[in-house]
Design goal:
- The complex is a heterodimer of chains A (377) and B (400).
- Chain A is an alpha+beta fold and 377 residues long.
- Chain A has 3 domains: 113 residues, Acyl-CoA dehydrogenase/oxidase, N-terminal domain (Butyryl-Coa Dehydrogenase, subunit A, domain 1, Orthogonal Bundle); 110 residues, Beta Barrel (Butyryl-CoA Dehydrogenase, subunit A, domain 2); 146 residues, Butyryl-CoA Dehydrogenase, subunit A, domain 3 (Up-down Bundle), CATH 1.20.140.
- Helices cover 53% and strands 15% of the residues of chain A.
- Chain A is built from 11 helices and 10 strands.
- In chain A, strands 1-4-5-8 form a 4-stranded mixed beta sheet, with helices on one face.
- In chain A, strand 2 and strand 3 form a beta hairpin.
- In chain A, helix 1 packs parallel to helix 4, helix 4 packs antiparallel against helix 5 and helix 4 packs across helix 7.
- By secondary structure, chain B is α+β, with helices and mostly antiparallel strands.
- Chain B has 3 domains: 117 residues, Acyl-CoA dehydrogenase/oxidase, N-terminal domain (Butyryl-Coa Dehydrogenase, subunit A, domain 1); 109 residues, Butyryl-CoA Dehydrogenase, subunit A, domain 2, CATH 2.40.110; 142 residues, Butyryl-CoA Dehydrogenase, subunit A, domain 3.
- Helices cover 54% and strands 14% of the residues of chain B.
- Chain B is built from 12 helices and 8 strands.
- A 4-stranded mixed beta sheet of chain B has the order 1-4-5-8. A 4-stranded antiparallel beta sheet of chain B has the order 2-3-7-6, covered by helices on one side.
- In chain B, helix 5 packs antiparallel against helix 6.
- The chains are: A alpha+beta (377), B alpha+beta (400).
- At the A-B interface, strand 9, helix 9 and helix 10 of A face helix 10, helix 11 and helix 12 of B.
Amino acid sequence: MSYTLTEEQQLIAQSASDFAKESLDTIAVELDRTGHFPRAAIKALAGHDFLGLLLPEEVGGAGAGFVSYVNVVEILARSCASVAAIVSNHVLAAYVIQTWGTAEQKKLYLPGLAQGEVLGGIAACESGATGIPGGGSLVAIRQGNGYVLNGSKTFVRNAGEAGLYVVFAKTDATANPNVLTAFIVDAKAPGLHVGPKLDTMGLRGCPIADLVFNNVAVQDSAVLGSVNGGGAIIAATLAVASVAEAAQTVGLAQAALKHAATYSTQRIQFGRPIGSFQAIQVLLANVSANCYATRLAVLDAAASIEHGQPFLAEAAMVKLLALHLGQKSLIDVVQVEGGYGYSEEMTLARLYRDIAGTTVRDSPADFPEGRIAAEIA
Amino acid sequence: MLASITHPKLLLSDRECNHMQLTSDQLRLQAIAREFTAAHIIPFASKYDQTGEFPLFAVEEAKKAGLICMAIPKKFGGAEYDSVTQSVVVEEWAYGCAGFATTLSGNGLSSYPLLIAGSDEQKKLYFTPIVEGGLGAFSLTEPGAGSDAGSCKTTAKRVGNDYVLNGVKCFCTTGSYAKVFVIFASTDPDKGVKGLSAFVVERDRAGLMIGSVEHKLGIRSSNTIELILRDVCIPADRLLGKEGDGMKIAMKTLDMARPMVASIGVGVARRGLDECLKYLSTGKPSQMAQFTVADMEIQVEAARALVRSALSLKDAGLPYSKEAAVAKTFATDAAMQVCAAAQQLLGSLALSSASTVQKLLRDAKVLQIYEGTNQVQRMVIAGQILREQEAKQAAATGGK
């Protein structure tokens, strides 16, 4: 495939870049300090059609594809990863409804999501110790023309700010605990509670909390896809999410690299810029090479998703590359700026925390290596 | 003073102790330090990390436990522990919190220049307030002189029987709370590195001012400040060694301090590993998790062995400069890798500000930076082994 962006993709990327420079560079420090939700920025992003990025034009979306989605996430993350995370989780929720929703569900939810009147969130992670996505403690019991949900989900991004959540619950608990169904749940549903916002090390502007379901009643019309068919939806959703999260890591690593490289041309030690030392060049070059490879892999996986090709193994490899890029960035980039890089008055300390907050396995059970190995055989 | 523990080995039956390498005195100190850490560091580390408050109470407690002036000779009222013993204690502190460990071991770092070059009078002047429970600070770095310590701009001008110091130092650990400082300044700026000199300066000297306090990514309870010197007048007898000895003293000080930073690395890595083990023991660990903790254990053990090996050389009076740099680099790289791996292993569980692993990840980073970045360590190591090789070849050629 060609890695040259189409004219449309270039325009979207340029528009994201202009927006980020104008509206995000200025708020990133403040968001990190206060941990407040960036309401104004999200509203402005909606005005630029970024919240409906993947949705078709007939529901008010931008009709862009996954390649543009990962481009936008990377670009936003270079300026403010909290905002990138909020947007990427919202866009993902909209994508899930667009892909698996009925005509009625699309008509009901997509215009609001496209316009950013409603923010979306995905509740996939369980609070059980093993944290296996989907498997575990949220149970849906059949009752009348619908289901009653009880249990909880954890580490839900956009929690408390979202107007709707795509939720995965166990619908056949006795026969097979791995059988899941996806539901669309209104944030105002009686019995749905948002736990306290987690005080996080990084991505502090992106709210993250538990969702607690206490006899939350939903109609059959809330079922997304088929009953007991949630497993395939969650697998695809998490795979797409990991590609977007990798794009976020690439954006953060790129921003950190740029900062450190600029610093290295200005910082004079031993009578010359430290950037003229091979030791510093090696630090920057290795992270940069990782970043380059990960970005290409992100774009390739995004193109596969966009063109309806298989992408689960590719997404797992992208996730692994992003994990490595994140670790390498944490270890090597602050090192370039030494004591100054370690200061919270400087930019790198924030990027360090944001990278640590981004490139995580969902849990010790999150094991992309297994999928990759199976795929090779 | 010291808690009375009669059977230290009974208290120290676990894998972290490496009994065989330690004497019974060292094991006893290890047990005391471990008790101290459990009582006075671990319960407070998270709170002091979040507020950035300086843990003066821990300094008080360390004094009571007899752990505050380990490097100071008995003649001056100190404990005069050998270096291995000091490192054993520092590892325990760091297991509790790298920030506390930095504060508590700071008296060691700032005492070393006196041990290296101080006269008895100077030692008395410097060690007395420390033995009484006060703190000392070492100030070498400047905004324009980090890795390149020789490009120091602070000057010390001889005026009659005094020196007058002027300049701005930075990243001075514990500066706000120190009673005495060792400050490096140039007595002959034209000579560069060879014009650097070291001075003992008391806190109450006029013109010595505390500037901005650093807000850091990690070790937040450790106090890091800018030190402003404006016409600070001190008697000429505060000069350590001779004019121009500064760089030599600074390098020897860092040789002594590096294995202690390495020990902080060992403590931090060991804690990162333990946090993973604590989590994994609640379920059936996957093979990936098992291999991850195995790799961590390999790094912890290897790092500790390097520290003790370097310090055994020092305690035996043998050269150990390269070994100190090797230990510092390996142990602090290990700490960083272990903490990054721990964060990956625990995933979302390490996101919260209340999680120990996220604090470890922030704390670990500084260990690769302070006391000479690990890039500078590699310069030291390569310099020495290349010089040795040159000498070997020269000897071989000369023999022909």
